[in-house]
Amino acid sequence: xxxxxxxxxxxxxxxxxxxxxxxxxxxxxxxxxxxxxxxxxxxxxxxxxxxxxxxxxxxxxxxxxxxxxxxxxxxxxxxxxxxxxxxxxxxxxxxxxxxxxxxxxxxxxxxxxxxxxxxxxxxxxxxxxxxxxxxxxxxxxxxxxxxxxxxxxxxxxxxxxxxxxxxxxxxxxxxxxxxxxxxxxxxxxxxxxxxxxxxxxxxxxxxxxxxxxxxxxxxxxxxxxxxxxxxxxxxxxxxxxxxxxxxxxxxxxxxxxxxxxxxxxxxxxxxxxxxxxxxxxxxxxxxxxxxxxxxxxxxxxxxxxxxxxxxxxxxxxxxxxxxxxxxxxxxxxxxxxxxxxxxxxxxxxxxxxxxxxxxxxxxxxxxxxxxxxxxxxxxxxxxxxxxxxxxxxxxxxxxxxxxxxxxxxxxxxxxxxxxxxxxxxxxxxxxxxxxxxxxxxxxxxxxxxxxxxxxxxxxxxxxxxxxxxxxxxxxxxxxxxxxxxxxxxxxxxxxxxxxxxxxxxxxxxxxxxxxxxxxxxxxxxxxxxxxxxxxxxxxxxxxxxxxxxxxxxxxxxxxxxxxxxxxxxxxxxxxxxxxxxxxxxxxxxxxxxxxxxxxxxxxxxxxxxxxxxxxxxxxxxxxxxxxxxxxxxxxxxxx
Length: 639
What we know:
Blueprint: H1 8-24, H2 30-59, E1 69-78, E2 84-91, H3 93-116, H4 123-141, H5 146-164, H6 171-202, H7 207-210, H8 219-223, E3 225-226, E4 229-230, H9 231-246, H10 255-258, H11 264-272, H12 275-285, H13 287-293, H14 295-316, H15 322-343, H16 352-382, H17 398-411, H18 418-433, H19 435-460, H20 476-491, H21 497-500, H22 514-535, H23 541-549, H24 551-557, H25 562-608, H26 616-638
Antiparallel strand pairs: 1-2, 3-4
Helix pairs in contact: 1-2, 1-4, 2-3, 2-4, 3-4, 3-11, 3-16, 3-20, 4-5, 5-6, 6-9, 9-12, 9-14, 11-16, 12-15, 12-16, 13-14, 14-15, 14-19, 15-16, 15-18, 15-19, 16-17, 16-18, 16-20, 17-19, 17-20, 18-19, 18-22, 19-22
């Protein structure tokens, strides 16, 4: 039996790097801070790969099923004999998979940042927070109980706030950081209430008990109901709200596009391996409970994922900021992962949706990190995010051009690149369980291929652009991560996920269905073809189309005015009407009542203190007068 206790260092090393760089980073040279942070992540990455090798291949499945392992566990708080909070390392197929994904992408972002952030005044602070971000996600991934995961959720939110607002002198960056923090806090409140409901009825936070398939602990929740729905369904919906907030699912999607105000390596880490996949991981971790105890909640998960995937793909078509296009593509691809979990069954081929979701999470991490870092390379070269300022860059940036092309083909679902294989499994799961979601997902595949090809052709081909400074390829410290990630984007699809990461831990037979694959390839090629016709060379046709579409184009360009809607609701209704009414009531009724009582007491005190003047004549007069009054009163009463 392998002793996995060393895995705690996978998590602790980034934490130590955060502390060291945070306390002593300003006394170091920038390059030393960057190298230290990267070496720390390299160590965690090596340990993660060793763990994956031993878990999946050296030890392997027992009686055909991969076993869960509690590698490290300490009790932190105890509420009752059974209800306690533990911190530790919980290893199973999805947590081991996530250790590899998170550390790999984070390492690439660390190395890339040494070049990208060169000369930045907050260089050491940036690397310190980058290590904190990685620690937070790893702490969440290996959680032994749901409270540890919740703390990880909060730490991920804090880290994203610090990194999105890295350029804190820019009002837009501060606003974006606040927006992300506030929106996800509302979602996390739902998560916390869901945790309270689950723990109240089951008496435990422990994942080994919650997800062991024994439904008897949920009997009380299934029997109790509220507003016509049992408590377990309410609890799982609330927990999903927490995941939807982190993964920016509709209608909590509004924070993610604005998060592009942070440095590009942060965007890569948020989108590929940390914050937005945390919600997917949460649903996957609680999948057994969703499937067996709250199937109605799981159906909601499926439709939310499907709608978000389509809705954000439509928005991405009209955007011009290269990072925002990639942000909306992330929302769409995360929607794929969420809907795959929503349509999944449990065990064997029935659980193909679960496997496909984790498969796509892995392939997406590779090609999305590559896309963002490639975009950062482009921005680094021309100092602009706007597609309208770009064109013909393939001649100046050959490595970025080739690696970006691989990522675009992968996300577009073109074989044999990795995105094709994972997306095909998602479409297969959707086809078997929900035809509406299937057709929606096929449409999303076509839209994805179109808007990503639009971006690619505009940036690297398109119009001849005169640049103030001749663009040049990024330094090796930035291009090496691109080359490494391009290998993952090209070949990660050949990992046999059906043998490694499944809903029940047991391998099953998986094969390519041509009836699913051919339509998705055809619609992807069609999307690429239309983008080629419109954007390969400078043309007036796109402008004519936008004028023809008119209102619809303007609406999608403005993201269906959801930002304006939220501002209207918060400022005009909540702040101006509800909050001001409450404030008026507080000032005039609550405070007024208290102030009125105080005024009466004060006036009474002022008058009564005149009775204690210290003058004997006055006291004698009052004494005699009082005596006379009392005598007269008694005489009247007894007469």
